[in-house]
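Title: Request for sanity check on Nucleoside diphosphate kinase prediction

Description:
We are preparing a figure and want to confirm that the structure record we downloaded matches what your pipeline produces today. Could someone re-run it with the sequence below and paste the raw C-alpha cells into this thread? We only need the C-alpha cell string, no images.
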Amino acid sequence: MICTLLSIFSFIYRAMADPRERTFIMVKPDGVQRGLVGKIIKKFEQKGFKLVALRFVWPSEELLKQHYADLSSKPFFPDLLKYMSSGPVVPMVWEGSDVVRTGRVLLGATDPAASAPGTIRGDLCIKVGRNICHGSDAVESAKKEIALWFTEKEVVNWTLANEAWIYEIN
C-alpha cells in the first residue's frame, strides 16, 4: 500500500515538474585546470538537460563576494575567495524538469569522500576544497545565481530536437 502511494506521488510529482526549471552550475578553477569541463557538460547532456547559457570567465573578487555572500561569516571565506579567483571558471545554466534537485544528485555530495560512485564529485575529486563544481541548492538560489552571472539576453530559449524522447509531451 505504501509503495503504491509513493509510486502515485512520484508519478504526479514528475508530471507536475516544470520542464523549464533552470539551475546554475559552475565548473570551479580546479575543474577547469584539470580539463574536466567537457566531462561535466556531458553528464548533464546525457541526462537529458538542455544547456541554455555558458561562459568562460576569470571572476572578480567582487562577483565572488556576491555569489558566496551567504558564506561570508565562515572562517574559510577568505580562502574560498582566493581559490575561486585563482583561475577561470565556467558558469552555465541548465534547463529541464527538476533540474535543480537532479543537478545536485549528478554532482554528488559537497564532500567528495561522501559522494557516491558515478557522481561527478564521487568519480572526479577527493577533497571538499577542490570539489570542481558549484550547483544551486534551490530554485530560488538558482534564479539569484543565474541573474548574477548572466544577463537575460545571454540565456537562450530554444527547443531540443529530441525533447519528445526525453519528456512525455501531450
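Thanks, this matches our download. The first strand starts at residue 22 and ends at 27.
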